[in-house]
Sequence to fold (352 residues):
Amino acid sequence: MLLLLIIPVCALAQKQFLIKGRVNNIQTPAKIFLSYRYAGERSHWDSTVVKNGEFEFRGNVRDTVLATIYVDYVGINFDDIWKKNDIDTKNIYLANDTTNIIGTDSIYKAKLVGNKLNEDNYRFSELVRARFASPERKKEDAEFIRENPDSYISYHQALIELTAGINNSNIDDVEPLFKSLPENIRTSKEGIKYDVAINVLRTVINGSVAPDFAIPDTNGNLIKLSSFKGKYVLLDFWASWCAPCRQANPDMVNIYKHYKNKNFTILGISLDGAKGKAAWIAAIHKDGLTWPQVSDLTPGADLKIWDSEAARVYGIQSIPQNFLICPDGKIIAKNLDEDGLEKKLGEIFGTM
Fold:
């Protein structure tokens, strides 16, 4: 949920917010901190003291924005709160109208009332809390969206959680839910980006021709995806800093050794960060990755991340991600884990 701090709601007129809190268990010398930020900007902070279990924040924001309230029960400086105190938090939107926080034992469990946006926010957060380990989470997210199509929460929390960057989701399930949202959400800055992402992912569904690209390898030589035509190719999007990617590499090495002489190869596409070339190459050697590796290099020997040419055309917003391409250049599977990849290759090459 902390990731939601960087997601602004639709750009609207400047807002005057008022938050009034009463939580019986929060007493002097407790302090309350409020934090929010707009994408690409530094965080804004405010704080207030507690009197008789009550506290208040008021101010102006240029857009409705999701914030987080932190409770420091012993009144220490915020610099030390992570080390010396259990953190009691609440996500809350700063928007027009008054939002009341009402609770007894903690701010985390307190209700949000008096503002529809935050009332929807509270209902959804309670749903998340109740079904933390539930296998029905995606189904419940979809139900929340269908039942609350006019709520900002349906897009900014439910749809984003449901699709987890939309890379691993069924576009035919996701797109109707997005289209059901009101126009002001769909045409917002973030809504437009989401719509573009859906359209990009439609071009890389199973059965579609894999988009070609040309990216330099570790020696600066351009490698074209089309140069592998006639082989089964696994496009493997990874990075040296991606723990799940690195954890999968030993199994990937074994799979590659088993099938590399059976018309199969892997093309690794690194999404390492700025000045990450050395870390990228070190990871290749440490993990024993002997298949071709490419990454976009800038003139300053830095590496692009999500702006990589391949990442853009394949709609990559998170890693690990992969696409299995057959000899005629069409995508036949995507986002296979190691067991799934081995099973698929076994079916293809008759080694099951």
